[in-house]
Protein backbone atom coordinates (compact mmCIF):
# COMPACT_ATOMS: atom_id res chain seq x y z
CA UNK A 1 0.00 0.00 0.00
CA UNK A 2 1.37 3.40 -0.98
CA UNK A 3 -0.02 6.61 0.49
CA UNK A 4 2.21 9.14 -1.26
CA UNK A 5 4.34 9.48 -4.38
CA UNK A 6 7.68 10.92 -3.29
CA UNK A 7 10.52 12.11 -5.48
CA UNK A 8 12.02 8.66 -5.97
CA UNK A 9 8.71 7.16 -7.09
CA UNK A 10 7.98 10.14 -9.35
CA UNK A 11 11.38 9.74 -11.00
CA UNK A 12 10.83 6.01 -11.46
CA UNK A 13 7.39 6.75 -12.94
CA UNK A 14 8.79 9.12 -15.52
CA UNK A 15 11.68 6.80 -16.38
CA UNK A 16 9.26 3.89 -16.84
CA UNK A 17 6.98 6.02 -19.02
CA UNK A 18 9.95 7.09 -21.15
CA UNK A 19 11.03 3.48 -21.66
CA UNK A 20 7.49 2.35 -22.48
CA UNK A 21 7.04 5.19 -24.95
CA UNK A 22 10.34 4.32 -26.63
CA UNK A 23 9.17 0.73 -27.07
CA UNK A 24 5.82 1.89 -28.51
CA UNK A 25 7.08 4.82 -30.60
CA UNK A 26 6.88 3.09 -33.96
CA UNK A 27 3.40 1.75 -33.28
CA UNK A 28 2.23 5.22 -32.22
CA UNK A 29 3.79 6.74 -35.33
CA UNK A 30 1.96 4.18 -37.47
CA UNK A 31 -1.34 5.12 -35.81
CA UNK A 32 -0.67 8.79 -36.51
CA UNK A 33 0.17 8.07 -40.14
CA UNK A 34 -3.24 6.48 -40.59
CA UNK A 35 -5.12 9.41 -39.09
CA UNK A 36 -2.74 12.38 -39.13
CA UNK A 37 0.60 13.55 -40.46
CA UNK A 38 2.76 10.88 -38.84
CA UNK A 39 4.89 13.14 -36.64
CA UNK A 40 3.38 12.30 -33.25
CA UNK A 41 5.93 9.68 -32.25
CA UNK A 42 8.87 11.80 -33.39
CA UNK A 43 7.65 14.92 -31.60
CA UNK A 44 6.98 13.20 -28.30
CA UNK A 45 10.24 11.25 -28.47
CA UNK A 46 11.99 14.60 -28.87
CA UNK A 47 10.08 15.94 -25.86
CA UNK A 48 11.07 12.97 -23.73
CA UNK A 49 14.75 13.38 -24.65
CA UNK A 50 14.50 16.95 -23.32
CA UNK A 51 12.72 15.66 -20.23
CA UNK A 52 15.47 13.15 -19.49
CA UNK A 53 18.07 15.90 -19.84
CA UNK A 54 16.19 18.04 -17.30
CA UNK A 55 15.22 15.41 -14.74
CA UNK A 56 16.80 15.85 -11.30
CA UNK A 57 19.12 13.26 -9.83
CA UNK A 58 17.66 10.58 -7.57
CA UNK A 59 19.15 12.39 -4.56
CA UNK A 60 17.53 15.72 -5.46
CA UNK A 61 14.22 14.48 -6.89
CA UNK A 62 10.91 15.66 -5.50
CA UNK A 63 7.50 15.08 -7.00
CA UNK A 64 7.36 18.74 -8.03
CA UNK A 65 10.84 18.85 -9.55
CA UNK A 66 10.28 15.68 -11.60
CA UNK A 67 7.02 16.89 -13.09
CA UNK A 68 8.29 20.43 -13.57
CA UNK A 69 11.17 19.03 -15.61
CA UNK A 70 8.70 16.90 -17.54
CA UNK A 71 6.50 19.90 -18.26
CA UNK A 72 9.47 21.98 -19.41
CA UNK A 73 10.62 19.27 -21.81
CA UNK A 74 7.21 19.00 -23.46
CA UNK A 75 6.62 22.75 -23.56
CA UNK A 76 9.94 23.17 -25.40
CA UNK A 77 8.77 20.81 -28.16
CA UNK A 78 7.02 21.78 -31.36
CA UNK A 79 3.81 20.43 -32.77
CA UNK A 80 0.39 20.38 -31.15
CA UNK A 81 0.68 17.56 -28.65
CA UNK A 82 3.91 18.65 -26.96
CA UNK A 83 2.57 21.92 -25.50
CA UNK A 84 -0.74 20.30 -24.51
CA UNK A 85 1.03 17.52 -22.61
CA UNK A 86 3.37 20.16 -21.17
CA UNK A 87 0.55 22.23 -19.70
CA UNK A 88 -1.01 19.08 -18.28
CA UNK A 89 2.25 18.03 -16.61
CA UNK A 90 2.73 21.56 -15.26
CA UNK A 91 -0.61 21.38 -13.48
CA UNK A 92 0.33 17.99 -12.01
CA UNK A 93 3.66 19.39 -10.78
CA UNK A 94 1.86 22.02 -8.72
CA UNK A 95 -0.23 19.50 -6.78
CA UNK A 96 2.16 18.33 -4.12
CA UNK A 97 3.00 18.55 -0.43
CA UNK A 98 6.29 18.16 1.49
CA UNK A 99 5.73 14.44 2.01
CA UNK A 100 4.79 13.89 -1.64
CA UNK A 101 1.57 13.58 -3.56
CA UNK A 102 -1.32 11.41 -2.43
CA UNK A 103 -4.58 10.54 -4.11
CA UNK A 104 -6.32 13.83 -3.30
CA UNK A 105 -3.54 16.04 -4.66
CA UNK A 106 -2.93 13.85 -7.70
CA UNK A 107 -6.63 13.92 -8.55
CA UNK A 108 -6.66 17.70 -8.23
CA UNK A 109 -3.57 18.12 -10.40
CA UNK A 110 -4.79 15.82 -13.16
CA UNK A 111 -8.20 17.53 -13.15
CA UNK A 112 -6.62 20.98 -13.33
CA UNK A 113 -4.43 19.83 -16.21
CA UNK A 114 -7.44 18.37 -18.01
CA UNK A 115 -9.26 21.70 -17.71
CA UNK A 116 -6.24 23.55 -19.12
CA UNK A 117 -5.85 21.16 -22.06
CA UNK A 118 -9.54 21.48 -22.88
CA UNK A 119 -9.32 25.26 -22.63
CA UNK A 120 -6.36 25.39 -25.00
CA UNK A 121 -7.37 22.64 -27.43
CA UNK A 122 -11.14 22.92 -27.31
CA UNK A 123 -11.68 19.15 -27.36
CA UNK A 124 -14.27 17.18 -25.40
CA UNK A 125 -14.89 13.49 -24.81
CA UNK A 126 -15.97 11.94 -28.10
CA UNK A 127 -13.79 14.15 -30.30
CA UNK A 128 -11.18 11.40 -30.73
CA UNK A 129 -8.27 13.05 -28.92
CA UNK A 130 -6.17 12.57 -25.80
CA UNK A 131 -9.19 13.86 -23.85
CA UNK A 132 -10.97 10.54 -24.43
CA UNK A 133 -8.39 8.84 -22.19
CA UNK A 134 -7.56 11.77 -19.93
CA UNK A 135 -11.12 12.65 -18.87
CA UNK A 136 -12.09 9.16 -17.64
CA UNK A 137 -8.74 8.79 -15.88
CA UNK A 138 -9.29 12.11 -14.16
CA UNK A 139 -12.79 11.15 -13.08
CA UNK A 140 -11.49 7.84 -11.80
CA UNK A 141 -8.92 9.64 -9.64
CA UNK A 142 -11.56 12.03 -8.30
CA UNK A 143 -13.78 9.07 -7.42
CA UNK A 144 -10.83 7.34 -5.76
CA UNK A 145 -10.19 10.48 -3.72
CA UNK A 146 -13.81 10.62 -2.61
CA UNK A 147 -13.69 6.94 -1.63
CA UNK A 148 -10.42 7.28 0.28
CA UNK A 149 -8.35 4.95 -1.90
CA UNK A 150 -4.59 4.92 -1.56
CA UNK A 151 -2.65 6.34 -4.49
CA UNK A 152 -1.49 2.95 -5.77
CA UNK A 153 -5.06 1.68 -6.05
CA UNK A 154 -6.20 5.04 -7.44
CA UNK A 155 -3.57 4.90 -10.21
CA UNK A 156 -4.49 1.33 -11.11
CA UNK A 157 -8.11 2.37 -11.52
CA UNK A 158 -7.13 5.46 -13.51
CA UNK A 159 -4.93 3.38 -15.81
CA UNK A 160 -7.82 1.02 -16.56
CA UNK A 161 -10.13 3.95 -17.27
CA UNK A 162 -7.58 5.62 -19.53
CA UNK A 163 -6.95 2.42 -21.51
CA UNK A 164 -10.69 1.91 -22.02
CA UNK A 165 -11.00 5.51 -23.14
CA UNK A 166 -8.12 5.11 -25.59
CA UNK A 167 -9.69 1.96 -27.02
CA UNK A 168 -12.97 3.82 -27.54
CA UNK A 169 -11.31 6.25 -29.95
CA UNK A 170 -11.05 3.52 -32.58
CA UNK A 171 -14.79 3.86 -33.18
CA UNK A 172 -14.91 7.65 -33.11
CA UNK A 173 -14.73 10.16 -35.93
CA UNK A 174 -12.29 12.92 -35.08
CA UNK A 175 -13.70 16.41 -34.60
CA UNK A 176 -10.33 18.04 -33.84
CA UNK A 177 -6.83 17.95 -35.28
CA UNK A 178 -5.59 16.47 -38.54
CA UNK A 179 -7.54 13.25 -38.06
CA UNK A 180 -10.72 15.28 -38.59
CA UNK A 181 -9.64 15.79 -42.22
CA UNK A 182 -9.71 12.11 -43.13
CA UNK A 183 -13.10 11.21 -41.68
CA UNK A 184 -14.09 7.57 -42.15
CA UNK A 185 -10.57 6.62 -43.26
CA UNK A 186 -9.50 6.90 -39.61
CA UNK A 187 -12.28 4.64 -38.36
CA UNK A 188 -10.77 1.74 -36.43
CA UNK A 189 -7.59 3.68 -35.57
CA UNK A 190 -6.91 4.54 -31.94
CA UNK A 191 -5.83 8.10 -31.26
CA UNK A 192 -2.09 8.05 -30.43
CA UNK A 193 -2.44 10.85 -27.89
CA UNK A 194 -5.09 8.91 -26.00
CA UNK A 195 -2.94 5.77 -26.11
CA UNK A 196 0.00 7.76 -24.72
CA UNK A 197 -2.13 9.04 -21.84
CA UNK A 198 -3.08 5.45 -21.04
CA UNK A 199 0.60 4.44 -21.14
CA UNK A 200 1.44 7.25 -18.73
CA UNK A 201 -1.05 6.09 -16.12
CA UNK A 202 -0.12 2.45 -16.64
CA UNK A 203 3.54 3.29 -16.02
CA UNK A 204 2.56 5.11 -12.83
CA UNK A 205 0.40 2.26 -11.63
CA UNK A 206 3.17 -0.28 -12.27
CA UNK A 207 5.80 1.73 -10.42
CA UNK A 208 3.71 2.93 -7.49
CA UNK A 209 2.15 -0.50 -6.95
CA UNK A 210 5.66 -1.90 -6.82
What would you note in describing this structure?
With 210 residues, the chain is an all-alpha fold. Helices cover 67% and strands 0% of the residues. It contains eight helices and no strands. It has helices spanning 7-35, 40-54, 63-75, 81-93, 103-121, 131-146, 151-168, 192-209. α4 (81-93) runs antiparallel to α5 (103-121) and α6 packs antiparallel against α7 (151-168). It is globular and about 45 Å long. The mean pLDDT is 90.
Outline:
It contains 8 helices and no strands.
Helix vs. strand class? mainly alpha
Helical content band? 55-70%
**Strand residue content:** under 5%
Q: First CA to last CA: what distance?
A: 9 Å
Q: What characterizes the major β-sheet?
A: none
Counting H and I runs of at least 4 residues, what is the number of helices?
A: 8
Instruction: Give the tally of β-strands.
Output: 0
H/E element sequence: HHHHHHHH
Task: Give the averaged pLDDT, no decimals.
Answer: 90
Global Rg:
16 Å
Poorly predicted sequence stretches spanning 5 or more consecutive residues: none
Shape: globular
